[in-house]
Recover the amino acids of this structure.
């Protein structure tokens, strides 16, 4: 890191554990989508049908 203030304030951060945003294996901070929620309710009664 080039920014000395950032490094001074973030000594506890494990820089090697953060995945890269660019490069040959870019994962970034991609999270897996939750599968427990349904996209649409089965019964759609009421105003909007």
């Amino acid at each position: 890191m080039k920014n000395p203030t950032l490094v001074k304030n973030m000594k506890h951060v494990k820089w090697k554990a953060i995945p890269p945003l660019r490069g040959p294996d870019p994962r970034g901070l991609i999270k897996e989508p939750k599968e427990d929620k349904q996209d649409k309710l089965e019964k759609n009664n009421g105003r909007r049908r």
Summary: Residues 6 and 46 are 53 Å apart (CA to CA). The chain has a mean pLDDT of 69.
